[in-house]
């Protein structure tokens, strides 16, 4: 638990968001939705905090949602154009590099391509809910030369819906800030345990999804070989 009282943390971050809040929301969501910086920046958490401070009167909720959506869209575009104009020729070499192996780039790109091939534009809508997979979907959309207007249309809808929902969550959480303080002080370890269980469940579901996609790819290759032999 923090060494400072809860309200002191609220005040400390409030002073920071009062000066740089809109810039933090925009740059945070932009970086979080790119393939590399997404591993380092908690962009959606920064947007959620921005919405919370909008409830407390420091920022404007409409501007927070707009800037978070613009940052998300721009981040997706960075990866889309990198995939389309840069990575097509170097993807295999980059995947085999030490950094590529460390972030499991090849596997993430294969999973993203499978989602795009099977679900098309719906994969962009869903990718906003699947952690760091989101930017690899954008990279794969560019590498597979997904039509730009189709990519743009789905991304506009997805970014707006996701950021609106996320910011509204932060806005309504801030309305219960006093109750949240009591809960954190009395049930901090319980909440930590629940969050840990949710994280493990998310990892389990992700592994099951990856396993299922690998099985589908193996079955597809097996059917293709059978057709050739026939």
On the 0 to 100 scale, the average pLDDT is 76
Unreliable residue stretches: none
The helix-and-strand class reads mainly alpha
Q: In the residues, how many domains can be counted?
A: 2
Give me the number of helical elements. 10
**Major beta sheet summary:** none
* Shape call: elongated
Structure in words:
The protein has 230 residues and is mostly helical. The chain folds into two domains: 6-175, no CATH class; 188-230. It has helices at residues 6-32, 43-55, 61-87, 91-96, 98-102, 105-119, 121-127, 133-143, 148-175, 177-229. The protein is elongated, with a radius of gyration of 20 Å. The mean pLDDT is 76.
Please give the structural blueprint:
Elements: H1 6-32, H2 43-55, H3 61-87, H4 91-96, H5 98-102, H6 105-119, H7 121-127, H8 133-143, H9 148-175, H10 177-229
Characterize this entry briefly:
The chain is mostly helical and 230 residues long.
Keyword list:
single chain; 230 residues; mainly alpha; elongated
